[in-house]
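dude i think i finally got it to work??
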Amino acid sequence: MERNSEKYSTYLQILRKELIPAMGCTEPIAVAYCAAIAGKTLGCLPERVEIEASGNIIKNVKSVIVPNTDGRRGVEAAAAVGIIAGDDSAGLEVISHVSEEDKRRLGEYLETTPIKVSPAKSELVLDVTVSVFSGESSAKVRIINHHTGLALVEKDGQVLFEDEPVNPAAESGLDYGLLSVEDIYDFAQSLDVEDVRELFDRQIEYNCAIAGEGLNGDYGANIGKVLLNQGDDVHTLARAKAAAASDARMGGCELPVIINSGSGNQGITVCVPVVEYALELGSSREKLYRALAISNLTAIHLKEGIGRLSAYCGAVSAGASAGAAVSYLRGGDLDSISHALVNALAISSGMVCDGAKPSCAAKIAVAVDSGLLAMEMYDAGQQFYGGDGIILKGVENTIRNVGVLGRHGMKETDRTIIELMTK
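look at this
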């Protein structure tokens, strides 16, 4: 792929668009971001707050600890910390600078302020509206379709801003439809590593740092530590460190991660196992960058078909992409990478997303294991074939099938999961 080509430029811009820092699970952070803008628009501390949120937002906020809230969970805590101490200019790091005084005020505010949460009357999977009130004054802010997709800002009934962000691709003007496994491999092979050095160095630094914190601290069900007790071979380390990073993130750790496709857990999964294998294999930094280009872009490609929020667990696509990248590190060519992806998708595509919570770490471990098994299968001359379940001949055809399954086939599953979780 020529460096001055449209496709090369688009791939590079997609990476820069998607690989951004976020602190905490991105759904409660989206609520905090929306609430921060609402509070700022009102111009004073709200006396009453009303929140309407889509089912997938409620599902992913319900059980996860919101950072910088002294261990609190839920939509109310996320909105309140956004109002009290949020900085919307920081995007998905909106609550990264919360003081001890802010935390004290947060407790008092939650005890004394009515905060009502109700389901959004919307078919959108990502939809949050925060309305705030003080005396006769009010403000309303809505985000849709992606975590900082600002759609509406009102003050006292007057519209100050209105837009309809479709998705990050449409907003940026980037053509995500240009992504394909063959061209991702070509891009990685022809990549000028200086174009991604700073981007990938930050991803490695942030995501490996939170993995270390997960292994050193006490978070969630400590899946990373449980796995580490099984041994210290690279296969175990890859699963344990990825799981530990999620342990910490779901447990309210205040370290940021570099996300992928709007998800910190997916950003962790496409990065940490690949780094572990690069260390084990003695791969050069340049080779690691090329592998990370494969894992990150492949995960983005898969998620474009599935959708950002779904009943289809995002760790599956991220784990498959990590397996493909490890295959590349071990000398795999396009054929090896493609078969590793198809094998992985055949193994674990049934895993559902039932919200952000401690068990996400275990699902990441399973997804990484599937990605590595898929790679090892092909190395051993074994593979799944078109007609095996949802698998079709050709990696792009299989990816399209998985997209249909995740975006359309699992809609009723998603409704049922949300109903079970919110009964």
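The domain at 179-422 is CATH 1.10.4100 (2-methylcitrate dehydratase PrpD).
im so relieved honestly
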